[in-house]
Amino acid sequence: MPNPGVPSATVGRLVTYLRLLTELEEEGTRTTSSDELATRAHVSAFQVRKDLAYFGRFGTRGAGYTVATLRRELRRILGLTRPWTVAIVGMGRLGQALADYPNFDLYDFRLRAAFDADPAKAGLHAGGLVIEPIEALADRVAELGVDMAFLTVPASSAQVAADALVAAGVRGILNFAPAVLDVPETVHVEPIDFLAGLKRLAYQMVRPGDDDAAVG
Amino acid sequence: MPNPGVPSATVGRLVTYLRLLTELEEEGTRTTSSDELATRAHVSAFQVRKDLAYFGRFGTRGAGYTVATLRRELRRILGLTRPWTVAIVGMGRLGQALADYPNFDLYDFRLRAAFDADPAKAGLHAGGLVIEPIEALADRVAELGVDMAFLTVPASSAQVAADALVAAGVRGILNFAPAVLDVPETVHVEPIDFLAGLKRLAYQMVRPGDDDAAVG
DNA sequence: TATTGTGAACCGGTTCACAGCG
DNA sequence: CGCTGTGAACCGGTTCACAATA
Hints:
2 copies of one chain form a homodimer. Chain A is an alpha/beta fold.
């Protein structure tokens, strides 16, 4: 019966732990420990245990964690045991690359629609989808029960597109556009901004003195 | 003469402020304020001023900031006034999409080489580049003076590719692979993991109670 | 004995109130 | 008078030491 106030950094790390557990399972490993997960995730074992403690007790003292069990629990915690219906808005190069991406089913993300504002693109195929005109968005989102959208339009139209998605009832946006979106509190946005990442990287390379102390 | 211990969240926000200033400049706005930047970035005005204070004094009391000046200062702080030579490793769909991306020059990121482990891809064109075999990486990185790399290989080969880049002298990696890289402290990594973002989004949608209190 | 689970201490980032100045 | 710049208070996340227990 969880539990408010989970740090968002914790959520990010849980996603990492889940991936590591999947890898361990593929390697045939049956059990693991906070120490092993910590090493692979580049965090401390304290941190791993504290992160898990927000949600319950999943290990056995003296023995560690069962890989399959912990993996199942993390999937449940992260909301990855139910299907999510997804649409793409903006079928430029990035939108098309995402439509072609093969591994969404891995956690039951179901790509069901793709929209573009350019009428010339309507009717073209991308991945297994037919691109639809942006005018169809409201009706189709409602009809398909779209839960979340990949927003891959230019920054200049990101807010307009986000408004349309919100009005249509979408509750989550993975925002690839370099723009801060204004949405109601009931709608969740996760930014994926590689240009911003590139600039953060440039900063780190120009200021080696921040963040970490040098060693030996 | 700055200054250690700048929070990494501050660096991320500086990148946002820079983008907003660029937009303001394009709109023809001459001056702005911590208030205006804060509103557009969805943070508090305190936060804007504190972030800037890590690096100096850029405004005029009573009047605010000159857009052009503050923009120039942020570019300098973020290391965006010098050219960066960039290579792509992994010419799958994502690598090709990045090679085609037109706007790197905007801040003088110069895409100069593209590598792929698949010999069948060597010699193919992508963007303005000819794809080279991965065996050429060490020599070409040294020859071109590559500063940073976009790592767009599958997760299973990410660490091997990172090792090769580090050995070749690359000092920064924009890591698109879903993997935690193990690199020396002198090498900087910035992760861009959209699958992780997707899972964080799923979590938020399943737990509306965390992070923010509901209103109205 | 080994490793988890957790309350408390610590630290760092954010918030704030107000001093400083144009 | 208005808005910036900043030292201090506050708060929340991380670190830690240790109690719990298989």
